[in-house]
Every structure is written in structure tokens, then in C-alpha cells.
Amino acid sequence: MTRNSPTEMGDLLLQVVFHSQIATEEGRFTVADVIREVHEKMVRRHPHVFGEKRAKDAAEVLRNWEQIKAQERAGAQERQERGEAEKKEQRKSLLDGVPRGLPATMEGLQLTRKASRAGFDWTTRREFFEKLREEFAELLRASDEKDAAKMEERWATYYLRPST
Fold this sequence. Notes:
Elements: H1 5-25, H2 31-45, H3 47-50, H4 58-90, H5 104-117, H6 125-144, H7 148-158
Helix pairs in contact: 6-7
């Protein structure tokens, strides 16, 4: 800790309060929710301080902490998988899920990352144009089959953007 620590910590607290206020105005969460989450995490991750569990040394504290983190990750993964399954039922595009309120650069970055994971990632112009030809062929096939839903999906894919 330095003399500037209160100032630096104040800057950090300002960010937490500021973003919490924005979230409150959007009806997502409040600063009280943030405080509750921090409190629950501290108690959960430090049973040697807040609970009945005792640790004989710092190494045991670290082992316990790693075990707790592993359990949290497993639980988070399970919740995420459940949530992803539910979201997949609602999604129409692989690129859905990127918030539209982001600054354009951040939105573009997130869309690019999602597109890359879906196979839209090229190192040369030739690869890019080959992919466009492939997607256009699928669009034509859907058109020939007069499958409106498939055409909409292919059209959105062809333009590398989420369907609406």
C-alpha cells in the first residue's frame, strides 16, 4: 500500500458504483446485489476465516481455495450448459447474443470472434472468397427448394451477420 492507495481504490470504487448505477437504471442489478455477491464469495471462499473449517497452514488454505474454485467452476459450467441449451432454442443465428448496445468496435470484435468459432476465419483472400462461394451456393440451393426459412438463414450467413 502506498500513499496513493486511497485515491486508486476510490477510482476503483467509482467504477463499481458507476456501472452499478447504469445497471440499476437498465433494471439489471443494483449496487446492493454487487455487495451481496462479494460478501457471499468471501464467506464461501474463506471458510477458515468465516466458517468452521480450520487450516493448519497457508498451503492448506491454498489447497482448500483451489478445491472451492474447482467446485465453483463445475457449477458455473453446468449452469452455463443449461443456459446455453435454453438459449440455443431461442437463437436463430450463431452470432446472436452479442449486445447491440456495445460501442461499434467492441460489437465488431465480439461478432468477429463468434464468426471465427463458427468457421468464418481465413488467412488469405482466396480462402475468404471460397467461403463466400460456398455460402452463396447454399443460398441458391435454398432458393431452388423454395425454403423461405432456409433462405433467410443462408442470406444472413452469406452476409456474415445475425439473422433478424
